[in-house]
């Protein structure tokens, strides 16, 4: 369930942002996941245009017209990352690429229910 929350929010946001890019040939979503050393790394990059909107606390804010009904995805992704001993890293390596990544600590075999 946690992985679905993380991936669905991540990919939904990426697809929506990329769709707003005016030039179709500049639209993209890149997604990669790997398992290594007890962690599952997840990285999603997408094209975007415009400015990022930030809330007074410095966190990203929704750009949708009804902010009361939207803007929960990043918070939900951050909660999942923290549950698995990680952080949600959000960055813009340049003005046309938006990146979200995390490394989730996988439960050990002893921690998994039978």
How would you describe this structure to a colleague?
The protein has 114 residues and is α+β, with helices and mostly antiparallel strands. Helix content is 25%, strand content 28%. It contains 2 helices and 4 strands. It has a 4-stranded antiparallel beta sheet, with helices on one face. β3 and β4 (97-105) form a beta hairpin. α1 packs antiparallel against α2 (73-83). The chain is globular and about 45 Å long. It starts with a helix and ends in a 9-residue tail after the last strand. The model has no long low-confidence stretch (mean pLDDT 85).
* H-E string: HEEHEE
Can you summarize the main beta sheet? Answer: 4 strands, antiparallel
Helix content: 25-40%
Taken from the alpha-carbon principal axes, the silhouette is globular
Tally the beta strands.
4
Average per-residue pLDDT, rounded, comes to 85
Going by helix content, strand content and strand pairing, the class is: alpha+beta
Strand order of the largest sheet: 1-2-4-3
Low-confidence stretches: none
Give Rg in angstroms: 15 Å
Helical run tally: 2
Distance between the termini: 17 Å
Strand portion: 25-35%
């Amino acid at each position: 369930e946690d992985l679905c929350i993380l991936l669905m929010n991540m990919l939904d946001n990426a697809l929506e942002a990329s769709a707003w890019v005016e030039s179709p040939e500049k639209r993209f979503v890149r997604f990669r996941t790997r398992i290594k050393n007890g962690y599952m790394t997840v990285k999603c990059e997408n094209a975007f245009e415009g400015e990022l909107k930030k809330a007074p606390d410095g966190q990203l804010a929704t750009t949708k017209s009804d902010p009361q009904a939207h803007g929960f995805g990043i918070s939900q992704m951050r909660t999942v990352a923290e549950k698995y001993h990680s952080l949600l890293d959000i960055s813009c390596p340049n003005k046309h690429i938006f990146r979200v990544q995390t490394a989730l600590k996988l439960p050990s075999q002893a921690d998994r229910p039978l």
